[in-house]
Amino acid sequence: MSESCSHDCNSCGADCASRQSSPADLLEKPHELSHIKKVIGVVSGKGGVGKSMVTSMLAVIMRRREFRTAILDADITGPSIPKSFGIKEKAMGDGMGGIFPVETKTGIEMMSVNLLLENETTPVVWRGPIIAGTVKQFWTDVIWNDVDFMFVDMPPGTGDVPLTVFQSIPLDGIIVVASPQELVSMIVEKAVNMAKQMNIPILGLIENMSYASCPDCGKKINVFGESHIDETAAKYGLPVLAKLPIDPQLAKNCDQGVIELFEGDWMEHAADVVEELLK
Length: 279
Ligand SMILES: Nc1ncnc2c1ncn2[C@@H]1O[C@H](COP(=O)(O)OP(=O)(O)OP(=O)(O)O)[C@@H](O)[C@H]1O
Description:
Layout: E1 35-44, H1 51-64, E2 69-73, H2 81-84, E3 102-103, E4 109-111, H3 128-140, E5 146-153, H4 160-168, E6 173-178, H5 180-183, H6 187-197, E7 202-213, E8 220-221, H7 229-236, E9 240-245, H8 248-255, H9 268-276
Parallel strand pairs: 1-5, 1-6, 2-4, 2-5, 6-7, 7-9
Antiparallel strand pairs: 3-4, 7-8
The structure holds adenosine-5'-triphosphate (ATP).
Pfam families: ParA
Organism: Fumia xinanensis
Subunit structure: Homodimer.
C-alpha cells in the first residue's frame, strides 16, 4: 500500500496488494452441467414482508408462461419456500459432489436448506460465513438443468450474508419487496443503494400488503395507511412492478403448500418486466 493511499480504489489506478477486488472478481461459476439464462434476486430491507411469497408467485407465473423456471432459496435461516410448494422430499446427490434440485408439481426446480435438513423444524443456527458458503454451494454444486429464469429468494437485510450472495451469484436484476411501512423508512433506501453499489439493475419495487379488500363491498382499505410506493419509486427513479393486497387466500395457499394454485393478476406486469430480460 502506498503512503498516500486514500482507501478508495475507484479513484486510484495503482495495482497494489491491498487493491480491493471488484464485485465481478468474486463471482462463482455454476456447476458445469447447469445452464441458467437469467437470474433475478428478490430482496427486502428486513424479514417478514412477503419476499418468499413474491419469489414463489413470480416463479409460478413464469412457469405458467411455459418458461423453465427455478428457485434458489438463499434465505437460509428462514426457508419457507418448500413448505409453500408442499415439498416434503429431500434433495439427492449425484455421488460426485453435485446435488439435484427437487422439482415442484408444475416443474419448477428448487433448492433450499430445508431440502437437505433431516427435519425441517431444525433451526439453522449457523454463523454468517457458513450461511453464505451454503448459498454459494446452491449455485456451484447444484445441477440446475436448462433454466430460463432463476429466482433467488435473498437473505433479508443488507448485512454480511446478503452482501456475499450479491457478490457471488451473477444477478441480472433485482426486485425489491417492501411493506407500506418500510417504504416510508430508510430500510428500502438501504436495499436500493446496496444493489446500486453492486451495479445490479433494479427491475422495480413491489409493495406487499398494500391494501385489503372488504369481502362485502370490495372497498379497498389501506390497513397500514396510505400507500407510498409511487412517491418512493419516483424518488429513486424506479418502476412500480406490483401492489399486492393482503389476501387470506394467499396465506392459506402458502400454509397448505399449494401456492401453485394461487389466483390473481397483481403480478402480471412484474412478470412482463422479467420476461423482457430474455428478449
Ligand atoms: N399479501 C399477503 N397476503 C396474505 N398473506 C401474506 C401476504 N404476504 C405474505 N403473507 C404471509 O406472511 C408470511 C410471511 O411471508 P414471507 O415468508 O413471504 O415473508 P419473507 O419476507 O420472505 O420473510 P422472511 O424473510 O422472514 O423469510 C407468510 O406466512 C405469508 O403467507
